[in-house]
Amino acid sequence: MADSTRPTPVFRHLDDLDVPWQAVKSQRNADGTTAHVWEKWLAFSPDPQYLSLYARYDPGMIVRRHGHNSPHIVFVLAGDLDVGGHACPAGTHIELPDGAAFGPIVAGPEGATLFEVMMGDPRSWGDDPQAFHAALAERGAEPLPDPPLEFPAWLEDLRRHWA
């Protein structure tokens, strides 16, 4: 007999209408097109804090070197990334212990699809802005302002600190 006092599983599917794709980072490419990092936040919990997400990087998208305020797992499902000089094709698993930074991240010519889990506060911090600006300059890209996001009420959006 099932114990009705226990939590129950939550099932999500990528086409669930209540889990929209959100642009979380944007850049203007050398050819004038815009590229984004897109995320679907599949599970976002306040207690204990964790975030599980599905991400798509548009081709050539560049993300600054950064870490998160928690342990973080990244699994490349499709496409490829260059992560701080490390080739990360489909099938690559990246483990980031709490306090570890990675990047800059550059999506390959086909982009990349990722599954990620942050086991604690998912907000990020950055370092080595020179490496980010060098990666942008090498490709003739420029960062655009962060798109607006719907954060849970219990979590403050700190991205303005990186503007």
Overview of this protein structure:
The protein is mainly beta and 163 residues long. It has a single domain (22-149), classed as Sandwich (Jelly Rolls). Helix content is 7%, strand content 46%. It has one helix and twelve strands. 21% of the residues are buried.
What is the name of the CATH architecture?
Answer: Sandwich
- How can the largest sheet be summarized? 9 strands, antiparallel
List the total number of helices: 1
Which spans of ≥5 residues are poorly predicted at pLDDT below 50?
none
Structural class, by secondary structure, is mainly beta
Strand content: over 45%
Q: How would you sum up the global shape?
A: globular
* End-to-end Cα distance: 54 Å
Per CATH, the class reads Mainly Beta
Number of strands: 12
